[in-house]
Amino acid sequence: MTHFTPYAALAGGALIGAAAVLLLWLNGRIAGVSGIAAGLWFSARGERLWRLLFLVGLVAGCGAWVLLSGEPALRRSGFPVWALLLAGLLVGYGTSLAGGCTSGHGVCGVARLSWRSLAAIGFRVVLRRPAPLWDDRFHLSLRHRIDAPLLLGSALFCMGWGLAGYCPGPAIASLGLGNAEVLWFVPAMVAGAALQRWQARPA
């Protein structure tokens, strides 16, 4: 990063928060991109359409920003494929084990549990409703304990994130930039999530 862009960062953060609140208000779901993406393969058929539409919007929004802003998409070259694959596996496995990535927990989880978070205002208003607009209940995690899967999954996720510099949301969004690297990273991420869910299946 060569320059600080506080206004763009503030606007982007506000849009992410607004999107998370809107998904919760309308659909009763948490906007955790890793879980939404993995659910395309592992959820019941009736749960797949909204996930697909959300991810398409994520990619299209990123591409639209580049087209409308006129700013060139930032790309790097020469990053090893093996590192992208390993990072994707770590991120996918870790987020599935921990029940979300750090950004998902931060944007959605902290906002629901901490009154000190500014984002909590929107979530608390939404959660005063008996149900979302388009569903009969809110689909919130019942896991509240700090346990071994959370800690191990978070560690694996951070290792993958640190190795390649991608977490689930930006990786999928950057498909809209024509970023070839994520064509390796995203399938590996889905494979990592699939492996964790396969291992955690009932015997």
> pLDDT under 50 segments (min length 5)?
114-122
Helical residue percent? 55-70%
Shape: globular
Total tally of structural domains: 1
Global mean pLDDT:
78
Which structural class do the helices and strands define? mainly alpha
Major sheet attributes: none
Order of helices and strands: HHHHHHHHH
State the gist of this model.
The chain is an all-alpha fold. It is 66% helix and 0% strand. Helix 2 (33-42) packs across helix 3, helix 4 packs parallel to helix 9 and helix 5 (102-113) crosses helix 6 (120-127).
Explain what this protein looks like in three dimensions.
- By secondary structure, the chain is mainly alpha-helical.
- The chain has one domain.
- Helices cover 66% and strands 0% of the residues.
- The protein has nine helices and no strands.
- Helix 2 packs across helix 3 and helix 4 packs antiparallel against helix 7.
- The chain is globular, with a radius of gyration of 17 Å.
What order do the helices and strands come in, and which of them pair?
Layout: H1 6-27, H2 33-42, H3 48-69, H4 81-98, H5 102-113, H6 120-127, H7 148-164, H8 168-173, H9 182-199
Characteristic key phrases:
globular; mainly alpha
